[in-house]
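Technical note accompanying the year-one report. For the benefit of new consortium partners, we illustrate the data format agreed upon in the data management plan: each record pairs a sequence with a structure-token string. No post-processing was applied to the example shown here.
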Amino acid sequence: MVKKHFVLQSLRQVITRLKIRQPTKELSILLPAYNEAHQIERCLLEVEKAVKAITHSYEIIVSEDGSSDCTAAIVSTMGKSNPNIVLLHSSTRLGKGKAIKNALASSNGKFLAFMDVDLATDLSCLPKLLSVVKANGGMAIGSRHVEGSHVERSVSRTLFSLTYNILVRLLFLDGIRDHQCGFKMMSRQLAEVILCSSKSDGYFFDTEMIVRCKKLGFPVQEVPVNWQEKNKGNSKVNPVRDSKKICLDMLTFRFNL
């Protein structure tokens, strides 16, 4: 109880220093996007349909990350006829973490959800995450490795995911079974504190966010999801190519924690 009181008091002090703006929307959906012209329109239409079933006070922010295709143009056109769709454009590649941080800085939601443009996670799971955060605070994350989840994915991707998550649990003892599912929700105040202190902008970003939340003493609840691998063979994360960077980020964070 004393520790929890200390954590809450520390969090309030950090929040005061950050001068967090008062939310004007209930929900902000943050979508990092890099070369997603082939699916961004479908994504936005499906996300808006799902969000409207939850609340009419929302915004969908696409943080476009230095794309070389027409992703930004498509989102810009949609935003002209729909004020709930917001485009953030970067002329250079920043990385997923930085793209989400930029979206956070421009968002107005009381609650914030992050998801991948390919919508591998079924959007029917969105209300579950929101209800968990409203009830318990902290963070709610979609999980492919807990009871009740339904996953369709290649064997190689499954093995990589399981191996990665085992290594993270051994290093940080956080008890989380799925750190990398791109489907997460948290309150605005917690998001400000976690994201403003995070260092990684790449694949390790999701893991760092979860570990920092746990270290602050706030709950991270895994919610089973329906997940289907999309864009097979065209994933922007290559386990072989990116493993060195992932391990370096992981060990650097563990050393500095």
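Partners are asked to follow this layout when depositing records. Residues 115 and 183 are 5 Å apart (CA to CA).
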